[in-house]
Amino acid sequence: MFYWNSSIIVLIPALIISAWAQMKITSTFNKYSRINAINGYTGAQVARNLLDSHGLFDVPVEIVNGKLTDHYDPQNRVMRLSSDVYYGSSIAAIGVAAHETGHAFQHQERYSPLIIRNSIVPIVNFGSNASWIIFFLGFFFGLSKLLNIGIILFLGVVIFQLITLPVEFNASNRALAVLENRGILLGEEVNGARNVLKAAAMTYVAAAITAIAQLLRLVILSNSRRDD
């Protein structure tokens, strides 16, 4: 079948990296979830404190279901933390909460990569689903135009993943700086939070690598179909 074409070999390194990144964030988060911060703040308290310090009094901090589902919603201007982070006073919980407030600061300051990423979300959502369908039709019916459209649409997914990298790295850098400067985490606790956020960042790097590998595979499949 088309999907199991030998070109799938280009995905193997990306899949290995993705699996490693997922195991890394899970193990690192679990490790530092068992170490409570000396100051005893919960993730919710840290998020609230940092938001208020930047004048973001109108951004609520809410609980969201799931594990590692924490995120800042720029459309509704809401901070959503998983229960482990919201109620937790561990180094991991505080690090994740601070990271998400970093996104709120980016939004407040109109940080360019974040604004660009948010603006292309609707296009990327459409492209990520439609690209494979259009490419699939073009592949089986030998229609070069559809093959090209599918590749172009998926290119938007790759661009989105690449733009996500500076957004996430910047949010983590902001988080670590404010945690240390405000004395929320002390000494080696900052390094612990850094380890958590580094592990989280690797999941975004893995996603970008996977998207690039998928795009490369589409190009290989397209060329092979044209050569038939």
Quick description:
This protein is mainly alpha-helical and 228 residues long. It has seven helices and three strands.
Task: Report on this structure.
- It contains seven helices and three strands; from the N terminus they run ααβββααααα.
- With 228 residues, the protein is mainly α.
- A three-stranded mixed sheet has the order 1-3-2.
- Helix 2 runs parallel beside helix 4.
- The two termini are 15 Å apart.
- The model has no long low-confidence stretch (mean pLDDT 92).
Which short descriptors sum up this protein?
single chain; 228 residues; mainly alpha; elongated
SS element count, helices: 7
Helix content: over 70%
Query: In whole angstroms, how far apart are the ends?
Result: 15 Å
Strand content: 5-15%
Shape: elongated
What's the main sheet like? 3 strands, mixed
How many strands appear in the DSSP assignment? 3
Unreliable spans: none
Give the helices and strands as they follow along the chain: HHEEEHHHHH
Structural class of the helices, strands and pairings? Answer: mainly alpha
Average per-residue pLDDT, rounded, comes to 92
* Main β-sheet, spatial strand arrangement: 1-3-2
What is the radius of gyration computed over CA atoms, rounded to a whole number of angstroms?
Answer: 20 Å
Question: What order do the helices and strands come in, and which of them pair?
Answer:
Elements: H1 12-33, H2 43-53, E1 61-64, E2 71-73, E3 78-82, H3 83-87, H4 91-109, H5 112-141, H6 144-181, H7 188-227
Helix pairs in contact: 1-7, 2-4, 4-6, 4-7, 5-6, 6-7
